[in-house]
Amino acid sequence: MKYSTYIILLLLLASCNSFYLNSMKRIGLFDNQAYLEEIKVPEKKVIFVPMQHVGTKDYYKDVKYKMDSLQNLGFKPFIESIIIPDYLDINQKEYFYKKFRKITGNVGNLYLDTINNTFVGKVKLPNNHNLINQPPNDELFDMSEAVNIDAHLDSIILKFEKMHGTIALTKCDLETDIYDLSYNCKTLDKKTQLLFKELFTFRYRDSIIADATLKSNNRKIVLVYGKNHFEGLKKFLEINKSQ
After folding, report:
1. Which of 23, 232, 49 lies closest to 134 in space, CA to CA?
2. pLDDT at 12 over 50
3. What is the pLDDT of residue 66?
4. Closest CA to 107 of 53, 179, 200, 172
5. Cα dihedral angle (222, 224, 229, 232), rounded to 10 degrees?
6. Where do the structural domains in the chain lie, given as residue ranges?
7. Backbone phi and psi for residue 49, each to the nearest 5 degrees, phi listed first
8. CA separation (Å) from 15 to 19, 27, 123, 202?
9. Which one, 41, 58, 190, 236, has least CB within 10 Å?
10. In sequence order, which residues have a C-beta less than 8 Å from that of residue 41 and are 6 or more positions away?
11. Exposed / middle / buried, residue 23 (Cβ in 10 Å: 0-12, 13-18, 19+)
12. Quick one: which H or E segment has residue 119?
């Protein structure tokens, strides 16, 4: 490779990395504070705490401080995490998870690699970035009072299949362990993945969460959810509260 070509490639890589770093800043991954939002719901006080899979140590420290304060004031934490229902046996749980993996391509390794110092496997981070993966919920607030009101995994898959058609698992899908981070089987195309993300990762789950919030007997609720869910949740709560 000619020296000039090598230099151009290095510059292109540096430019791409700079673009990703700036994008990370714009979406708030380097924020040191969690900015709370109140959603107007009749006869309830509903506070939204924006969560993100990666953030600064100070961000999660601030989340913990604010959650401690809210819980001391009597707020009930409603949390997100797709529910794997107990009525499924171990084989059914694995079956639906493998379908979810087939749809999304997500094998749980999409965030911060603290060993190689990279984000989503492609963005090289500066040594002083101060980012960490989201801590477990029990390190951020008192889980003894928390309620998971998210959607059920089997419900998500079955509803998607009703719209899209049956998700057929290949030999590769079936033989690759659900904990294998090197999963490299053929997934659904990007267009279908984006459709699933819009309709089910967000819209369907947001509707489930909003409905549970409105039907709850709790008058003080703190929604601890991914920040990208805020607008959808707010929309569903505002639509349903008038019905």
Report:
1. 49
2. no
3. 97
4. 179
5. -20
6. 33-107+133-240
7. -105, 110
8. 6, 19, 11, 32
9. 190
10. 213, 214, 237, 241
11. exposed
12. strand 118-119
Enumerate the β-bridge partners of residue 76. Answer: 221
Please identify which residue in the block is written with the tokens 């504070």.
33
Dig out the tokens for 188 from the structure. Answer: 């659904």
Question: Average pLDDT for residues 218-227, to the nearest whole number?
Answer: 95
| Gap between the terminal Cα atoms of the chain | 67
Residue at token pair 């391509």: 105
Does pLDDT of 1 surpass 60? no
Higher pLDDT, residue 122 or 173? 173
Q: Is 55 exposed, middle or buried (0-12, 13-18, 19+ CB in 10 A)?
A: buried
Helix (H, G, I), strand (E, B) or coil at 169: coil
- CB contact at 8 A, 104 and 193: yes
Name beta bridge partners: 51: 226
d(C-alpha 35, C-alpha 173), whole Å: 41
Encoded tokens for 211: 């409905």
Q: What is the CA radius of gyration of the chain?
A: 20
Are the beta carbons of 130 and 59 closer than 8 angstroms? Answer: no
Task: Provide the residue type at 100 as one letter.
Answer: F
8 vs 200, which has greater pLDDT?
200
**What's the pTM?**
0.81
Cα–Cα separations (whole angstroms), residue 206 to 2, 81, 144, 203:
53, 12, 23, 5
Q: State the alpha helices, DSSP H only, in 73-204.
A: 90-104, 153-164, 171-175, 190-196
Whole-angstrom CA distances from 104 to 16, 37, 160 are 25, 29, 12
